[in-house]
Amino acid sequence: MHNEAPLISIVVIGIGLAFLLGTLANRLRTSPLAGYLVAGIAVGPFTPGFVADQALALQLAEIGEILLMFGVGLHFSVKDLLSVRAVAIPGAIAQVGVASVLGFGLALLLGWPPSAGIVFGLCLAVASTVVLLRTLQERRLVDTRRGHIAVGWLVTQDLITVLALVLLPAFAAVTHDAAGHASGPAGTEAILRTVAITLGKVAAFVALMLIVGRRAIPAVLHFVAHTGSRELFRLSVLSVALVVAWVATEVFGVSFALGAFVAGMVLSESQLSQRAAEETLPLRDAFAVLFFVSVGMLFDPSVLIKAPFGLIAAMVVVGIGTPVTTFFVLRRLGESWVTAATIAVGLAQVGEFSFLLADLGIALNVLPRAARDLILGTSILLILANPLLFALIERARPWLERHDPIPVPALTGETPAPEPEPVGLQPTLLADHVVLVGFGRVGRLVADELARHEAPLLVIEAGEGDVPLPEGGTIEVLRGNAADPAVLAAANLQAARLLLVAIPDAFEAGQIVEQARALRPDLRIIARAHFDAAVEHLSRHGANVVVMGEREIARSMLDWARPAVTSADTPSAA
């Protein structure tokens, strides 16, 4: 049956197996990404049993990448991108250059020709956009300075990769003609001409989006929003993301990822950007899972036995060479230890663009087929290790902050804006206070009302943006994830009068409620929920009251409607 419907087979078996193994990975206290990758290996051609269609899986993965980059663009503005250009652009170029040189040296040690070394080095120098962005999103770092630098870094790498992909055929022609001899100056002229044309197309696409797309895209979405149809609005958002990405690739030669990112960034200035992000979130998550499944399908486990030296050496280049280079470059550009370490660890992997470069290099007879196995093996193993490295950085964060020396001057002469960072988990001295978890739209309204009553308030916020606290009363801010036992311990729940959990994530809220109930059995806990299952989940974990938005809206409407209804039911006097 699966041979007759390969697309359905990939979606059903891939997502189903990813769910099972991702859940198992989560239970083992590791990242679900590990489960997704193992699911891909299980349905790949190198393991027994069902074999999914690799070509279809990769196309589905590209859709996931488009939606992911579009979502990131929705939280990013041109101003945000320009604010980190002095760090992201030179930093990415330096990191790609050093990593390419290291990969080139490894290729020579493996006995490959210099032309293969150049392509192989570039493959090892480019990080996976999907992996890094998913990790930043899980830790709520996309909207911080670290997130902005990382996204700017990825955009720069993306442009370098686009250039490499369009230059590779010309490079192959220069390297060897049909007889294996050099092609001469004509090939060099072809490369320069290709570079000029490619840069011109990229500039034309960006200009078109900033001049025309900046007005046209928000106008279309506002028109659709006024129809009142949620289905049409969701369809319009998906159409914008996919169509712009497709046009960027087919007409301007820009990658899908960069095209989708620019589309999202253009829309970010619209008032509908938040709603657009919410509408595309489920599809982004589903297709992102398929991306990791497709990566796992490409991995041949036998490379662990056939080429252990090459694999270990490639992992050293990417897992040690790239982060060390990135760390020192960012320190030289004046960034803090925490920022430098976070981005360095995030770049310690390779992904989708490396596979594209490797496939094209093999097709042009520039790169040996063994290189793809090394790249895939390095990618799989380092993607598995990446969440663990991030966790280590988060644990080391207080030490890094305490021992960070005076920042060195930036090469550009510009002083980067300081990144708002937590000051450490100092236990609060408040007593008889209210603990508020989350300072989003709901949390701010709650904090404003509590401030009017001058109740002592402790706000726990995991994000790293500014927390515009209301005036009045005694208010403190504790930075960190409230699901972390150390954060809850610092909130002094033993002396608190109330815990308000205002974050929308039901699973994380359940962990917070459960831990708080264990610390203080008699504490009154009020939480929020979006659906009935979340209400039951939070109540089961110990919340005294769970407020669901839709129910409260209905009750408020009925309160206002009751006088009119009662009046209509009362018999009129004869």
Concise overview:
The protein is mainly alpha-helical and 574 residues long.
Explain the overall architecture.
The structure is a single chain. With 574 residues, the protein is mainly alpha-helical. The protein folds into two domains: 6-179 and 192-401, Na+/H+ antiporter like fold (Up-down Bundle), CATH 1.20.1530; 434-563, Rossmann fold (3-Layer(aba) Sandwich), CATH 3.40.50. Helices cover 67% and strands 5% of the residues. The chain is built from 22 helices and six strands. It has helices at 6-27, 32-42, 54-74, 78-83, 85-109, 114-125, 129-138, 145-175, 185-225, 230-250, 256-267, 273-297, 303-306, 308-332, 337-346, 352-363, 369-403, 441-452, 485-490, 506-519, 532-540, 549-569, and strands at 434-437, 457-461, 475-479, 498-501, 525-529, 545-548. A six-stranded parallel beta sheet has the order 3-2-1-4-5-6, sandwiched between helices. The protein is globular, with a radius of gyration of 26 Å. The N and C termini lie far apart (75 Å). 44% of the residues are buried. Residues 177-184 and 406-424 have low confidence and may be disordered.
Rg result: 26 Å
Task: Classify the fold: give the CATH topology of the largest domain.
Answer: Na+/H+ antiporter like fold
Summing up helix and strand content along with how strands pair, one would put the structural category as mainly alpha
Give the quaternary arrangement of the chains: single chain
Distance between the termini: 75 Å
Strand content: under 5%
* Tally of discrete structural domains: 2
- Show unreliable segments: 177-184, 406-424
User: Could you give the order of strands across the largest sheet?
Assistant: 3-2-1-4-5-6
Q: In the CATH classification, which architecture of the largest domain applies?
A: Up-down Bundle
Q: Summarize the main sheet.
A: 6 strands, parallel
> What sequence of helices (H) and strands (E) makes up the elements?
HHHHHHHHHHHHHHHHHEHEEHEHEHEH
